[in-house]
Design goal:
The chain is mainly alpha-helical. It has one domain (about 5-370). The chain is built from 13 helices and three strands, in the order H-H-H-H-E-E-E-H-H-H-H-H-H-H-H-H. The protein has helices at about 15-40, 45-70, 70-75, 80-95, 115-135, 140-160, 165-180, 185-205, 210-220, 230-240, 265-300, 305-325, 345-365, and strands at about 95-100, 100-110, 110-115. A three-stranded antiparallel sheet has the order 1-2-3, covered by helices on one side. Strand 1 (about 95-100) and strand 2 form a beta hairpin.
Length: about 375
């Protein structure tokens, strides 16, 4: 199906170099943020770091596999991958491991797998395949536009049942953007967004802890020792870092003042230790990496490849924006790890696999398909 698989060049060295640098730097940040928690909880200050390194090594192996695997194979098997992920999401609801009231993990021995992370990649690949094959029909609402929304909505619904609203919203936003890039009518997208908005509002307002999070987001200082505690501590940590920061390992908020500082709220620890300068540099690296991934999409010679790389870049940039928005009080609190930095085996494994696919796209040779496609005027 993909005639460009046999014509290849070297992968984008900037994407590869930045990814490797972020993974290694992430280990340093994670150790600083998690050592005290790990020592107190497990008697081993390296507990989280060792697991992250192991998952990172597995992720780098997956990156190399995705880099070398023919993209035509990836496209042909996209529906099977999505189906497998849906089965895993159903298993989570049936026999998943519950933590903090949320059932999001499958336990395999002493290790946990989070299928919702796999769902991000599965939806991007499946959408890229569908939009490539059905691009000529995308202008028809029922026959072209609606089917990918239904499938994406089903995946989002299963994840929402796990008491996770952030991941479905990210997946939905990426899906909308991919469909837009593929050439869908703006009127169809607007109608779908208006139809989804009441559903999202109901999911937020109907669940007590989500209502409390929304109120805490609006005024965290009103209940600084209760619902607003996490955000208040985050703002104090970032603010106390000043311009240059306190220095690596010198954070005080991480000393049991910031719950689960090794996961979604790891950025405030980094901000306290490296200040405005370090935070600005880290954010710049994230968005330059996102830009390079989108650049690979703009240069791809096949529609599946272009949509695949575009979807992954939108996912990466969107996840960074959501995480930073949450920890700085610009968005309501929701679970969303900071790519390559937060502790999370499933997250780093899937992200590195996705980067491998983008690197694979960057190797392909041929005239950029977007240059003659229906979205040329938009890009």
């Amino acid at each position: 199906m993909n005639r460009t698989d046999t014509r290849i060049k070297s992968p984008d060295p900037v994407i590869l170099g930045l990814t490797l640098a972020m993974v290694i730097f992430g280990w340093m940040v994670l150790y600083s943020a998690s050592a005290l928690v790990a020592e107190g909880r497990f008697g081993d200050q390296y507990y989280f770091l060792k697991r992250q390194v192991l998952w990172s090594v597995l992720g780098l192996a997956a990156l190399l596999t995705a880099l070398r695997l023919p993209l035509s194979f990836t496209q042909r098997n996209s529906r099977y991958f999505l189906l497998g992920v849906i089965v895993l999401l159903l298993l989570v609801l049936a026999v998943g491991h519950e933590v903090g009231g949320a059932k999001r993990w499958l336990r395999i021995g002493g290790w946990g797998l989070q299928p919702s992370e796999l769902a991000k990649l599965a939806v991007v690949i499946a959408l890229a395949d569908h939009l490539d094959r059905r691009q000529s029909r995308l202008g028809h609402f029922a026959g072209g536009f609606l089917p990918p929304l239904i499938v994406t909505g089903a995946v989002m619904g299963l994840i929402a049942l796990e008491r996770d609203l952030g991941t479905p919203l990210l997946i939905g936003a990426v899906a909308f953007a991919m469909i837009f890039v593929a050439g869908a009518r703006v009127s169809h997208l607007a109608a779908a967004a208006l139809a989804i908005l009441p559903v999202v509002s109901a999911l937020v307002l109907a669940v007590p802890y989500r209502r409390l999070r929304l109120l805490a987001f609006l005024d965290p200082w009103r209940d600084a020792q209760g619902t607003g505690y996490q955000l208040v501590q985050s703002l104090l940590a970032i603010g106390s870092g000043g311009f240059w920061g306190k220095g690596s390992g010198e954070s005080t908020i991480k000393m049991h003042y910031m719950p689960e500082s090794q996961t979604d709220f790891i950025f405030p620890i980094f901000g306290e230790e490296f200040g405005f300068v370090g935070s600005a540099l880290l954010t710049s690296v994230f968005f330059y990496l996102t830009y390079r991934c989108f650049r690979a999409a703009l240069r791809a010679p096949h529609w599946f490849q272009a949509l695949l790389a575009a979807g992954i870049s939108l996912w990466l940039g969107g996840q960074v924006l959501i995480n930073l928005g949450v920890v700085t009080g610009l968005l309501p609190t929701k679970g969303m790890p900071l790519p390559f930095i937060s502790f999370g085996g499933s997250s780093i494994l899937v992200l590195l696999t996705a980067i491998g696919l983008v690197l694979n796209v960057s190797r392909q040779v041929g005239p950029p398909v977007i240059a003659v496609g229906p979205v040329r005027r938009r890009l």
